[in-house]
Amino acid sequence: MDFSNVNDIKQSFEAAGGEFISPPAVFTERLPKIKAFVFDWDGVFNSGFKQDNTGSPFSEPSSMGINMLRFSGYLKSGEAPLIFIITGENNLPAIKLASREHFTGVYLSIRNKLAALEHINKEFGVLSHEIAFAFDDILDLGLAKEVALRFQVNRLANPLMNTFVQTSGLVDYKTSADGNSHAVREICELIIGLNKNYEQTISERMRFSATYQSYLAERNSRNPLFFEGKTGRIQIYNIV
């Protein structure tokens, strides 16, 4: 397999069950302009089930995927992309992951995700056509309509919604994995492949190269900002 060949990459992901709703040309055109990746939480990083009020979990394979996605962007342009989580709930594991991995920002208790998108536009200077979004459910669709690349996490339980999303032009790629099977990792692997530097990204990390260490030091020098929208207005959320 040629890890930098778009057709080989497409065939690999389709063989695993992924579905390209948009042709690869759409990704190769839009991906170089992407400055930020936004992830929903429930149903994307996990199954969406909750056992108590602490929130729903994440997986280490998905965490590694995001780190390699950022490193891939760093290798390609000299600057790692911004990473945001937008969730409708106060998910403590999202706070933990973002803090540990030094994401850019987390939006908690967001009922209208378009408000969070507008906040990102204004506060971080990233326009909607410079954003990619990973999502799974109805409350995500308004945001999906506005951004450049859309990755839907597959779930067999909602065939009508899946059809609606596709016929409404709200998705570019639908994962094979569901949220409980590391769908975020699948999305990240695809993006790194389409960046055409998969082998370099993995090889540099394997060797813990000077380049990777420089990326890691820069990544770890920044701490995430936290916001919440419980009142309908987005404001700073202070971590106790």
UniProtKB/TrEMBL annotation:
Among Gene3D superfamilies, the record links this protein to:
HAD superfamily/HAD-like (3.40.50.1000)
Which InterPro entries does its entry note?
HAD-like_sf, HAD_sf
Name recorded for this polypeptide: Phosphatase
Organism equals hydrothermal vent metagenome
